[in-house]
Write a structure and sequence with these properties.
This protein has 68 residues and is mostly helical. It is 65% helix and 0% strand. It has a domain at 15-32 and 39-66.
C-alpha cells in the first residue's frame, strides 16, 4: 500500500526484468494459495516452500534495488 503522502508517480519505475521478477513472485504466491496442501506429498511441499523462500529472497533484493 502506498503511504497517503506519497503519490503513485513517486514510486520507482521497474525495469522489464524487475517487473518480470515481481510478476513471477505473484504467480507463485497465487499457485501456493490455491494448492491443496493436505494432498501434496512431502516432496511437493518441500519444493513449494523452497520456491516461495527463493521468491521472497528475490523480492527483498528487488525492494533493495528500487529503494536505495
Amino acid at each position: 500500500m502506498i503511504p497517503q503522502h506519497e503519490s503513485p508517480s513517486a514510486r520507482p519505475r521497474l525495469t522489464a526484468q524487475q517487473h518480470s521478477r515481481l510478476t513471477g513472485a505473484r504467480q507463485d504466491l497465487t499457485k501456493a494459495r490455491r494448492a491443496d496442501l493436505g494432498s501434496l506429498t512431502p516432496a511437493a511441499l518441500i519444493l513449494l516452500i523452497e520456491r516461495l523462500r527463493s521468491r521472497l529472497d528475490d523480492t527483498v533484493h528487488l525492494i533493495e534495488e528500487t529503494h536505495d
